[in-house]
Amino acid sequence: MSRFFSQIPQIIYEGPDSKNPLAFKYYNPKHVIMGKTMVEHLPFAMAWWHNLCAEGTDMFGVGTADKSFGAPRNTMAHARAKVDAGFEFMQKLGIPYFCFHDVDLIPEGETITETNARLDEISDYIKEKMDETGIKCLWGTANMFTNPRFMNGAGSTNSADVYCFAAAQIKKALDITVKLGGKGYVFWGGREGYETLLNTDVLFEQENIASLMKMAVEYGRSIGFKGDFLIEPKPKEPMKHQYDFDAATAIGFLRQYGLDKDFKMNIEANHATLAGHTFQHELRISAINGMLGSIDANQGDILLGWDTDEFPFNVYDTTLCMYEVLKAGGIKGGFNFDSKTRRPSNTKEDMFYSYILGMDAFALGLIKAAALIEDGRLDAFVKERYESFESPIGKKIRENTATLAELALHAEQLGNPPSPSSGKQEYLECILNQILFSQN
Questions:
Q1: Which residues, at least 6 apart from 95, have a Cβ–Cβ distance to it below 8 Å?
Q2: What single-letter DSSP state applies at residue 69?
Q3: Which positions in this protein are listed as binding Mg(2+) 2 (predicted)?
Q4: Which residue of 74, 373, 385, 388 shows the fewest CB atoms closer than 10 Å?
């Protein structure tokens, strides 16, 4: 029964011509694309922290949105009210998953024993709601960046006692993730980095982070966690330099410390921007390394130099994202809206408008990405661009059977080799625009 959003109807698909702000224009969960329904291609998740906790507070002002849901803040009654509101919200939008940090769910206690008891209580209640609705947990994680004890990091802290507290939080967050059937467990190293090398032993800190991750894997497997552990790369903010700078850096770290068999990437669009990359780049690097695990669906603002966590509306980005996902054969994880409404968008209706925006943007991106693949011109061009490696000498290079002397002799015999073929970037961008804006 509707309790918190009684003024909001069930959100349904009405098509691109609809003017109803509380309806999907492109997200039709039953629509089949390339052999799978949209809901199968796009397993969306609600971010507990932004949707149910964030009130629009920024460094210059207090919150503008009421997320009390009729209960006193910082109480277990409030924690239960957020559960009720969250499941009502997800049901009305048809969202099949949610993601959480430990302290999103409950107010932190005076001791870890008290905090853990609260987590046990609220996770029991969440499990009841999951059983009633069929909504599932995509992934869980521990917040090891907000509390002042983590000001110097969690795994990278200079305090052994803080390190133990981080381990305790991870242990309990894994317990709750397994209890709720989560498909993944995320490490976001928000403060795993440094402000200045004048007081930092980088190797010491990275070894400690790796040790903490190894202990998490061992414990998780021992309690029956069969999903992927995930790293969410981000180059900066809140630390000036974070160790998981981007996908390539994180993958190198995992391989260096023997963690690559258990970990994959959770790629966030806005974090890619902060690293100086495109969203598409981070997805491609993860995919070609066999480490594309899950996605945080948002976008940044190119005029602002921080993590704005906007709801995605740039269809170029969502199309190129879904192009990478489709070419990779899909993802094991899902699409978590690590996105928040803008500070002036502070009504209950705005919560729904924002998710409709994001879900429609990715649905349209899926439609257009499939059209790009089915059109075939991009794939054909890339194949033709590298066709010289189908020649006898090219095949020897690709098969790793050529020697440096042999290649040098070939170059001498060529004399003046032909120029490489044109990259035709503008032509390919014309194709992208043609597909994006086609009326078919």
A1: 44, 45, 46, 89, 135, 355
A2: T
A3: 268, 271, 307, 309
A4: 74
Residue 296 annotated as binding? Answer: yes
Measured CA to CA, the distance from residue 215 to residue 337 in angstroms comes to: 29
Is residue 281 part of an annotated ligand binding site?
no
| 3-class state of residue 12 by DSSP | coil
Residue 64 structure tokens: 């503008």
Task: Show the tokens assigned to 22.
Answer: 């509380």
Read off the amino acid at residue 345.
Answer: S
Dmax over Cα atoms in the chain, in whole Å? 82
Instruction: Please report where in the chains the tokens 């349209």 appear, as a residue.
Output: 364
Residue 374 marked as a ligand binder: no
The upper half-sphere exposure of residue 87, i.e. CA atoms within 13 Å in the direction of its Cβ, equals: 19
CA distance 151 to 146: 8
Catalytic residues: 101, 104
**How many helices (DSSP H) and strands (DSSP E) are in the chain?**
16, 12
- Determine the 3-state secondary structure of 37 from DSSP: strand
Tens digits of residue pLDDT in 123-132: 999 999 999 9
Picking from 147, 154, 217, the residue whose alpha carbon sits closest to that of residue 185 is: 217
260 is in an annotated binding site: no
Using CB atoms within 10 Å of the CB of residue 39, give its burial: 0 to 12 exposed, 13 to 18 middle, 19+ buried.
middle
Q: Cβ–Cβ contacts within 10 Å for residue 10, how many?
A: 11
CB 270 within 8 A of CB 307: yes
How does 169-183 read in b/e, with b if 16+ C-beta sit within 10 Å? bbbbbbbbbbbbebb
Pairwise CA distance, residues 398 & 385, whole Å: 15
Q: Is 244 annotated as a binding residue?
A: no
- The chain-wide mean pLDDT, for the chain, equals 97
Q: Annotation-wise, does 232 bind a ligand? A: yes
What's the predicted TM-score (pTM) here? 0.97
Give the DSSP per-residue string, 297-366.
Answer: --B--TTSSS---BPP--HHHHHHHHHHHHHTT--SS-EEE-----TT--SHHHHHHHHHHHHHHHHHHH
Q: Where are the domains of the chain?
A: 36-374, 378-436
